[in-house]
Amino acid sequence: MCAVAASLSLLSACSSDDGDATSSGAEESESAAQQDQTGDATPTGRLNDDQAERKKLLSATKVDWDKAARTAEKEVSGSKLLDIDLDDDQQGNPEWDAEVVASDGTSTDVRIDAVTGKVSGSTKDNDQDADDKKENTDKLAAAKITAAKAAGTATDRKKGKVTSVALDDADGGATVWSVDVVTPATWDKTSFDIDAANGKVLNEHVDQD
Q1: Which of 72, 110, 145, 182 has its CB 3.0 to 4.6 Å from that of 122, i.e. a possible disulfide?
Q2: Distance separating alpha carbons of residues 44 and 165, to the nearest angstrom
Q3: Residue range 111-134, pLDDT digits in tens
């Protein structure tokens, strides 16, 4: 009887050990699978959504910002560039969206195909009042350096492709050219605020998101 009891006890212990081993193995496998999934979601060197979008647009773009800006200014006689930005059209193709201002302060949105360089459309802002027009002309009058000069200052500090140039008012009250430069090696965007009166760099920020 004692021998039988001992045998049963031994079998029970072995069964418990096997169960623990199986449970432990399952937990380790599950943990490893979770780690693999995490690794697949954010593998080293993978581009985030913004970087991937910049890469897509710039890789397809054949017309640089300055040529597109000149095309936009020619579309509205006597106008000057207020801002230009690389975006995509409704079909997902790269397109320069420029805003130019006529001598009376009226702004017009001009869209330029970033592959062919042709104007794809333009829309005059008919909702502007006198204050809006004065704000535009005041900004342009305050800019003593050109958009091209500001963009050159930005790319001297950070090599890359210009994707946006805009004349705006900084928090401190100065009128600035805001310039975005994308570095193809990383597809990060560096934004500059450049004093439109003297060309000094007031702010530089790298957007890695």
Answers
A1: 110
A2: 32
A3: 999 999 999 999 999 999 999 999
- pLDDT of amino acid 209: 64
Give the whole-angstrom CA distance, residue 142 versus residue 1.
106
Q: Where are the beta strands (DSSP E) in the chain?
A: 80-88, 94-101, 107-113, 119-124, 161-169, 175-183, 188-195, 201-207
Q: How far is Cα 61 from Cα 113, in angstroms, rounded to an integer?
A: 9
Which residues in 37-169 belong to E strands, given as ranges? 80-88, 94-101, 107-113, 119-124, 161-169
What SS3 class is residue 88?
Answer: strand
Decide if 157 contacts 204 (C-beta within 8 A): yes
Structure pTM?
0.77
Q: Tens digits of per-residue pLDDT, 12-65? A: 444 444 444 444 444 444 444 343 333 333 334 789 999 999 999 999 999 999
CB 165 within 8 A of CB 65: yes
Beta-carbon neighbour count of residue 205 at 10 Å? 10
